[in-house]
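Example 5.3 — CoA-binding domain-containing protein
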Amino acid sequence: MEAQLDEEQDIARIARQARVIAVVGMSPNEARPSWGVARYLQAQGFRIIPVNPGHAGSVILNERVYASLADIPASEGVDMIDIFRRSDAVSDIVDETLAHQPGAKVIWTQLGVRDDAAAARARAAGLTVIQDRCPKIEFPRHL
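Solution (predicted structure tokens):
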């Protein structure tokens, strides 16, 4: 119960403090969950930065798409990494975040996505980790 309460407090803090969210696995397809969640976040005033190597250099939701987290300039000020990839990709994304996005404060994995070992590494490095949840579902209670 206490862990659940702590996570709710983390979600409330993230919803209030995060401003720039890198969406890893962002799709240009409006029918895909990543597009819908990113569009919602934009509508709430968050800046989204799409990350998808297959669409790098193009534009999704009026934002330039980057091939990887390493390609996003530090000056963009990414606060949160929102992962729309399979669970087996999370470990590499956490490693890339730690190596190339030193300002990031949050790793967030979408519904059905979790990697407890990668989450432990991220937490040990000082990041907040939310797994198997969706900000489009969670943020409205806190905005």
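Remark. Strands lie at 20-24, 47-51, 59-60, 63-64, 80-83, 106-109, 128-130.
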